[in-house]
Amino acid sequence: MKTYETVIILDDRKVQDEGKAFKEEFSSMISRAGGEIIKATPLGRKTFAREMKKRKTGFYWDFIFDLNEKEIKALPEKYRLDERVLRLQAFIYDRPEDPRAVKEEPALEEETVTETVKAE
Q1: Rounded Cα–Cα distance for residues 115 and 117 (Å)
Q2: Are residues 19 and 42 in contact, defined by beta-carbon separation less than 8 angstroms?
Q3: What is the pLDDT of residues 22-78, one digit of tens each?
Q4: Domains of the chain
């Protein structure tokens, strides 16, 4: 199993309660597929830079979950025809847990250059 992050944009005209019912439905679908929801974050209503399917705003949700690779490939296909979903994008989640835990590369030491100047 791998950890994935999925951002879903919901049509604000077709969804009640800012998508909380959709969140429950999505979470149960992931559980039935053998996965586990780690985190579900509502990002709120946002205005699009360009219209999307004749809509100007939508509710954003960010899901982080563990799921089989075989099941993640079927995820976009399942929600492709769902009228509530404007966009769905899944990524492999590879963020470190603690940003300070990432080892920084050592800084290059400055070389001191000494010049010999001949006095003429």
Answers
A1: 6
A2: yes
A3: 999 999 999 999 999 999 999 999 999 999 888 999 999 999 999 988 888 888 888
A4: 2-95 (3.30.70.60)
